[in-house]
Every structure is written in structure tokens, then in C-alpha cells.
């Protein structure tokens, strides 16, 4: 008995040690240079500089286009960080071994210079890098750590819906089977009783298919169904004239949102600069691509320049815009404004454009019909919190006890959408 127990205790203890070891790996803290301040103001100031200048390429705890930055004040001296952040190319050219090593590790991808940052800016940046947005290790593990993606919209993901539906179907089938069993047991039981003639006929009746097929009711039902189906698909067909849902033309450069917006988590606004400030979202010019592709010439750091990237260079050299094929296109008679929906309405791009960050080639996700606009305006509540413009309206409206929807501020008026 005792032997058995001690035998069991070995793997038990081993696994506890392993668990503790793994946990400590996950939460392992970097030593932080004591010169880096952990004051709230410094962290907040650093965060806004970081988001404006560094976030396109860096995350704190994950490798992105550049290395994960937390712990950088431990890996290098403060002076080194200052010169690298301000002008990494100069430091690399001077032959600094730390700078050359990291440069080579990242396929000689040059980080842009930030000469405009003051000493204080850089110190604030380091405060944010070391102390800001500390990742919750449990949450990081749940999203799969590196490259983990969190779903965009709340609600029930469609896979779950399918599962729920199939479970429902199985349950229904089971109920059918049980009912069938009960019927057959009852029939058996009843036919063993002494029944009068009418009851006996009722219990022993057989399902007469031919009779049903020949009945008038059946013929009428089937004809109605067929006619309704043909009419419905005909009308649907008419409604889809001019609707380009699913349209996914080939583009002149094999640009992938899945890679840029998905894998590298680039902000949509970095390229589509107009979404929060104007009517149009804008398609980026080749110069925006060149911020990175002046140096990134190939996927996976292969030798030579990829032909797709060469097309960007040709466009810049010849001063010729890249001729992207337009996908979403409302007719001229309709007016749609992005900032109204994104900045004021607080809607996610994905609500209208679908899972862009998973698209290798962009396709039109929504129908873009008038009915689509109107449906959403009928259903969607106004984000009125923190928007003084709406305070009065909300107050007036609250008497009617219904939520304030887009339709209530004129979202169904013809002239709001038609010139
Ligand atoms: C266009 C992409 C890009 C931007 C923007 C960028 N970096 Fe970098 N950064 C890199 C790359 C790539 C490296 C790896 C070294 C190399 O290839 O030069 C790097 C390396 C670093 C390093 C060295 C890290 C280490 O572990 O040794 C620091 C520090 C750093 N960046 C800070 C910043 C800060 C701060 C900003 C914003 C002010 C910034 N970077 C903006 C791409 C970028
Ligand atoms: C690196 C730059 C870049 C980023 C980041 C980016 N896009 Fe794009 N986007 C483009 C380019 C270039 C095109 C035109 C080529 C194409 O359709 O793929 C485009 C096209 C689109 C289109 C179709 C435009 C049309 O012709 O109707 C939509 C919609 C779109 N992007 C949405 C998004 C969303 C949403 C995000 C963020 C999740 C995003 N984009 C991130 C560069 C970018
Ligand atoms: C913030 C940096 C950044 C910007 C801006 C950017 N890209 Fe990229 N792009 C990358 C990275 C990183 C890769 C993948 C490199 C790798 O995996 O080795 C890449 C890969 C690509 C590839 C695949 C190259 C190949 O060899 O197959 C194409 C094509 C591309 N980008 C086009 C564009 C276009 C067009 C734009 C402008 C609309 C753009 N990129 C803007 C960072 C960027
Ligand atoms: C309420 C729905 C809705 C939302 C939210 C939305 N869009 Fe659009 N988007 C549209 C419609 C409609 C068009 C077609 C506009 C036209 O043809 O005038 C469009 C067109 C575009 C285009 C093509 C170029 C242009 O400006 O017409 C791009 C790029 C784009 N959207 C990107 C985005 C990005 C990025 C976001 C999120 C920041 C976003 N959209 C949010 C509905 C939406
Ligand atoms: C996913 C939901 C959604 C869709 C789809 C949508 N909208 Fe909207 N729309 C909103 C919201 C939310 C607002 C309110 C923004 C605010 O708070 O002012 C709004 C406001 C507007 C307004 C201003 C109304 C007013 O009285 O101030 C116009 C105009 C408009 N949308 C046009 C359109 C057009 C045209 C389409 C279709 C091409 C469209 N919208 C599709 C959600 C949507
Ligand atoms: C929320 C925005 C919105 C409102 C409000 C709206 N429309 Fe529209 N309407 C559209 C859009 C977008 C289209 C283009 C749809 C398409 O291309 O399939 C359209 C198309 C139309 C067309 C078809 C034109 C054609 O050539 O096919 C007519 C007619 C029309 N609208 C009339 C009206 C009238 C009348 C009202 C007021 C009762 C109204 N609309 C209110 C957005 C709106």
C-alpha cells in the first residue's frame, strides 16, 4: 500500500513542479531600469506617443513587425535606447554590435527615425513600454499568445449557432423516435384488449400513401408551394439587379488584408485615413505602402524583390497611381458618409464590411441596398452617451420610453440619403 502511494506521489509532485515552472515562465517579470519612471502621467504620455508612432510595428508583449518591446530598458542602456529610437540607421551604420544584431535578426528591416522625440518623450515612452498595459497572463494564454485573434463582434459566433441547431435537430429526432416507440407499444397493448369494431379499426388503421397523394388538398398545397417558390425566386432575381454582394475583383497588386490587418494587426485607419474625418474612407497611396516596403521586399525574407512589391516601386518611380479596382460603390443618387457612422455612430468597420481582416481578397460583404440602410436605421440605437448634441433629444424622447433609434433623428427621411 505505502509503496503504491509513494509511486503515485512521484508523478503528482512532478506535474506540480512542471505547472509552477510553466506559470512562472508565463509571468516572468523583466528587471526594469530604475531610471524609468512608473508614474501614471509618464505612462499616459508615453502611451499616446507610442500609439501615434510605434503601434503600427510594435506591441509590448508580442513580436509584430518589430520586436516585443517590454524589457528593452533591461536589454539595452537608456542612452542606447535614445539613440536607437531617434535614429536606428545611424547607430547601425556606426557598427554598434547590439544594434547590428537586432537589425539582422529582423531581416534588415529599417525602423523609421524619430528625431523629433525629446529626451522626455523617450523616457515617457520607456515608462509606457515597461509599465503600461500589463498583459493579464491568463487572457494572453486564452487568445493563444502571439498572433492570437479576438473575435470582432460579440454575440454568438456562427459555429456555435450551427452546433446549437444540430443539437436541436438531434433532440427533435430523438423525440420522434420515442413517440414512435410509445405508439407501437400502445398499439400492441390495445390490440390485445377486447375492442369494439370502430375502435379496432382505428387502432389498426394503416397509413395509406396513395390515398393521400390523390387527395385534392394535397394537390392544391403542392401547386401553391411550387407557384410561390417560382414567384419568390423571380422577384428576388429582379431585386438583385445592380446589387453586387460578394463582388471580389482581382486587384492589380496581390495586397492581402489577412496579412496586414489580420496577422500584423495594422489599424484600418493607418491606410484608410478618411474614415473618421470625412465622407470617404480613402484608398492609401503607394507612399503609405513605402513606409514599410521601402525595406520589406519579400514575404519571409527570401532573396530578391517580390514581383508584387516591385509593382509598388514602379508606381512610386513613375509617379503613377496604383489602379485599384473599386469594390463598394453606391449609385450617385445616394449619399453615404463614413465619419457619421464610424466616428459619431461608433460602428465597427466589420458591421458593414464583414471580416475584412480575414480576407486575402476583399469582397463586398453587404448588399448596400436601400433596404439594408433602412433596416439598420430602424433597429440601431443612437450612441448618445457623452454626446451633448443628443442630450435634449434623449430627454424629450425618454418620455416615450422607447430607445432612441436612428430613425428617430431622421434616419428614414429621403433627403438625408438622396441629394
Ligand atoms: C515601420 C515599423 C517600425 C516603427 C514605426 C517603429 N519601429 Fe521600432 N523597430 C522596428 C524593427 C523592424 C525593429 C528591429 C530592428 C531593426 O530591424 O532595425 C525595431 C526595433 C526597435 C527597438 C529595439 C528593440 C530591441 O529589443 O532591441 C526599439 C527600442 C524600438 N524599435 C522602439 C521603437 C519606438 C519607441 C518606436 C516609436 C517611436 C518605434 N520603434 C517605431 C520597426 C519599427
Ligand atoms: C496596409 C494598408 C491597409 C490596411 C491596414 C487596411 N486596408 Fe483596406 N484596403 C487597402 C488597399 C490598398 C485597398 C484596395 C485594394 C483591395 O481592395 O484589396 C483596400 C480596400 C479595402 C476595402 C474595399 C474598398 C473598395 O474598393 O470598395 C475595404 C472595405 C477595406 N479596405 C476595409 C479595411 C478595413 C475594415 C481594415 C481594417 C480591418 C483595412 N481595410 C485595413 C489597404 C489597407
Ligand atoms: C506597417 C508596415 C506595412 C505597410 C504600411 C504595408 N505593408 Fe505590405 N507587408 C508588410 C509586412 C510585414 C509584410 C510581410 C513580410 C513578411 O512576412 O516577410 C508585407 C507583405 C506584403 C506583400 C506580399 C509580398 C510578397 O512577397 O508576396 C504585398 C504584395 C504587400 N505587402 C503590399 C502592400 C501594399 C500594396 C501596401 C500599401 C497599400 C502595403 N503592403 C503596406 C508590412 C507593411
Ligand atoms: C454603416 C456601414 C459602414 C461602416 C460602419 C463602414 N463602412 Fe466603409 N463603406 C460603406 C459603404 C456604404 C461604402 C460605399 C460608399 C460609396 O460608394 O459612396 C463604403 C466604402 C468603403 C471603402 C471604399 C472607398 C470609399 O471611401 O468609398 C473603404 C476603403 C471603406 N469603406 C473602408 C471602411 C473602414 C476602414 C471602415 C471602419 C473604420 C468602414 N469602411 C466602416 C459602409 C460602411
Ligand atoms: C449597421 C447600421 C447602419 C447601416 C447599415 C447604415 N447606417 Fe446610416 N446610420 C447608422 C447610425 C448608428 C447612425 C447615427 C449616427 C449618429 O449618431 O448621428 C446613422 C446615421 C445616418 C445618417 C444621418 C441621419 C441623420 O438624421 O442625422 C445618414 C444620412 C445615413 N446614416 C445614411 C446611410 C446610408 C445611405 C446607408 C446605406 C448605404 C446607411 N446609412 C447604412 C447606422 C447605419
Ligand atoms: C438611409 C438612407 C436612405 C433613405 C432614408 C432613403 N433612401 Fe432611397 N436609396 C438609398 C440607397 C443607398 C439607394 C441605392 C440602392 C441600390 O443601389 O441598390 C437608394 C435607392 C433609391 C431609389 C432607386 C433608384 C434607382 O435608380 O434604382 C429610389 C427611387 C429611392 N431610393 C427613393 C427613396 C425615397 C422616396 C425615400 C424616402 C421615402 C428614400 N429613398 C429614402 C438610401 C436611402
From TrEMBL:
InterPro entries listed in its UniProt record: Cyt_c-like_dom, Cyt_c-like_dom_sf, Multihaem_cyt_sf
High-level lineage: Bacteria, Pseudomonadati, Bacteroidota, Cytophagia, Cytophagales
Occurrences of domain Cytochrome c (ranges): 41-133
Membrane-crossing segments per the record: 160-186, 212-231
This protein's record includes keyword Heme: yes
Record's signal peptide: 1-31
Name of the protein in question: Cytochrome c, mono-and diheme variants
Highest taxon in the source lineage: Bacteria
Keyword Heme on entry: yes
Amino acid at each position: 500500500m505505502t509503496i503504491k502511494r509513494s509511486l503515485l506521489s512521484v508523478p503528482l509532485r512532478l506535474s506540480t513542479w512542471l505547472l509552477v515552472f510553466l506559470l512562472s515562465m508565463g509571468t516572468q517579470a523583466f528587471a526594469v531600469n530604475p531610471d524609468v519612471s512608473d508614474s501614471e502621467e509618464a505612462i499616459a504620455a508615453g502611451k499616446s506617443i507610442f500609439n501615434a508612432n510605434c503601434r503600427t510595428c510594435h506591441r509590448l508583449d508580442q513580436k509584430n513587425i518589430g520586436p516585443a518591446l517590454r524589457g528593452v530598458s533591461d536589454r539595452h542602456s537608456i542612452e542606447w535606447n535614445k539613440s536607437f529610437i531617434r535614429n536606428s540607421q545611424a547607430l547601425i551604420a556606426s557598427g554598434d554590435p547590439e544594434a547590428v544584431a537586432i537589425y539582422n535578426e529582423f531581416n534588415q528591416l529599417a525602423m523609421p527615425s524619430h528625431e523629433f522625440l525629446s529626451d522626455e518623450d523617450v523616457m515617457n515612452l520607456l515608462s509606457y513600454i515597461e509599465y503600461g498595459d500589463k498583459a493579464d497572463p491568463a487572457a494572453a494564454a486564452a487568445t493563444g499568445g502571439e498572433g492570437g485573434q479576438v473575435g470582432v463582434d460579440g454575440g454568438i459566433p456562427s459555429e456555435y449557432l450551427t452546433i446549437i441547431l444540430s443539437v436541436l435537430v438531434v433532440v427533435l429526432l430523438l423525440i420522434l423516435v420515442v413517440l414512435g416507440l410509445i405508439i407501437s407499444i400502445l398499439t400492441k397493448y390495445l390490440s390485445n384488449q377486447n375492442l369494439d369494431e370502430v375502435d379496432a379499426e382505428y387502432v389498426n388503421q394503416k397509413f395509406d400513401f396513395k390515398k393521400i397523394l390523390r387527395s385534392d388538398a394535397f394537390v392544391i398545397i403542392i401547386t401553391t408551394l411550387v407557384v410561390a417558390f417560382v414567384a419568390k425566386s423571380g422577384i428576388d432575381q429582379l431585386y438583385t439587379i445592380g446589387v453586387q454582394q460578394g463582388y471580389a475583383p482581382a486587384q492589380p497588386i496581390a495586397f492581402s488584408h489577412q496579412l496586414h490587418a489580420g496577422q500584423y494587426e495594422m489599424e484600418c485607419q493607418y491606410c484608410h485615413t478618411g474614415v473618421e474625418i470625412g465622407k470617404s474612407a480613402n484608398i492609401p497611396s503607394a507612399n503609405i505602402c513605402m513606409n514599410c516596403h521601402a525595406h520589406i521586399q519579400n514575404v519571409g525574407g527570401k532573396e530578391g524583390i517580390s514581383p508584387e512589391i516591385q509593382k509598388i516601386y514602379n508606381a512610386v518611380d513613375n509617379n503613377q497611381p496604383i489602379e485599384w479596382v473599386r469594390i463598394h460603390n453606391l449609385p450617385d443618387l445616394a449619399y453615404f458618409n463614413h465619419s457619421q457612422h464610424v466616428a459619431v455612430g461608433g460602428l465597427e468597420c466589420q458591421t458593414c464590411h464583414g471580416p475584412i481582416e480575414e480576407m486575402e481578397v476583399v469582397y463586398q460583404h453587404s448588399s448596400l441596398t436601400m433596404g439594408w440602410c433602412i433596416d439598420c436605421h430602424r433597429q440601431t440605437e443612437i450612441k448618445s452617451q457623452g454626446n451633448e448634441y443628443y442630450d435634449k433629444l434623449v430627454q424629450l424622447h425618454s418620455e416615450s420610453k422607447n430607445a432612441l433609434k436612428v430613425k428617430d433623428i431622421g434616419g428614414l427621411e429621403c433627403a438625408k440619403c438622396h441629394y
